[in-house]
Amino acid sequence: IAVGGIFQRFNTTTANNIVVLNSNGSVDTSYNFATGVNASVSDVHLQDDGKVIVAGAFTQAGGVSRGRIARFNSNGSLDTGFATGAGANGDIYSMYVQSDGKIIIGGNFTTVDGVSRNRIARLNADGSLDTSFNPGSGADNQVHAVYTQNDGKVLLGGYFENVNGVTRNIIARLNTDGSLDTGFDVGGASSGMGVVDIAVQDQDGKIILTIGGSTAEPFGQIIGRLNTDGSEDSGFTAGSGTMLITGSIIDESTGNIYVLSPTSWYATDTTTVDGNGIVRLGQ
């Protein structure tokens, strides 16, 4: 298990914002990250070969300049073959590693390796910018969640109102070349709120959205579900809770949804349930 965040120690082990755990929760000391990264890690991915990709707000990794994304080898040393150039010029909040090794990144950046990319971009497996993926003018505000579907189309969620000059409030879908999928349109959303996490159900391709901000519109609840065409799944009713939630995880074996929160309660339409930071919803 690879873990990233804002910390200097994990249990009794020095760890600068990144650590790898064994399956029993103990620190895997075969990874020696040394200085780690110099600022927060927002997302982390452990590859099958043991290499670890991290993204966040940092400007140094392993004591070397890195623009908010880096890769470490399976022993914790910096992978110098992962060449991102100047990297992103602003924070990366989310990334998704595709089956072909390419990496979708979303955040609050406006360039990647000196090339204009407004808050959404794709990197090649070696860390270089994938220029074949061109989102045009991109998103006009922060992208907090990215997800690549099985068909290669890319979902992005955040606090934006336009994508490539077209009205798209908080959620949009891009084609495999980065162009806007104009057939996917959720409709309006209130200002001051956005999508902070995206998950897709393997069973039917339906899209789970974690809603953050001052209101839960347009779904009337803090977790929303879309059909594959972007229309609202009106049969999904998670209640009109107002707790601060940070993400969701789908158990693919059961279809149950786990909602994560730094608060200790979850409100539904009729009752308040003490969830101690995590609550399970049915399908």
What does this structure look like?
There is one protein chain. With 283 residues, this protein is an all-beta fold. The protein is 0% helix and 37% strand. The protein contains no helices and 27 strands. Strands 5-6-9 form a three-stranded antiparallel β-sheet, with no helix packed on it. A three-stranded antiparallel β-sheet has the order 10-11-14, with no helix packed on it. Strands 15-16-19 form a three-stranded antiparallel β-sheet, with no helix packed on it. A hairpin with a 2-residue loop joins strand 17 and strand 18 (166-167). The relative contact order is 0.08. Mean pLDDT is 87; it is low at 214-220.
Layout of SSEs?
Layout: E1 2-4, E2 9-10, E3 13-14, E4 18-20, E5 41-46, E6 52-56, E7 60-61, E8 64-65, E9 69-72, E10 92-97, E11 103-107, E12 111-112, E13 115-116, E14 120-123, E15 143-148, E16 154-158, E17 162-163, E18 166-167, E19 171-174, E20 193-200, E21 207-213, E22 223-226, E23 247-250, E24 257-260, E25 265-267, E26 272-274, E27 278-281
Antiparallel strand pairs: 1-4, 2-3, 5-6, 6-9, 7-8, 10-11, 11-14, 12-13, 15-16, 16-19, 17-18, 20-21, 21-22, 23-24, 24-27, 25-26
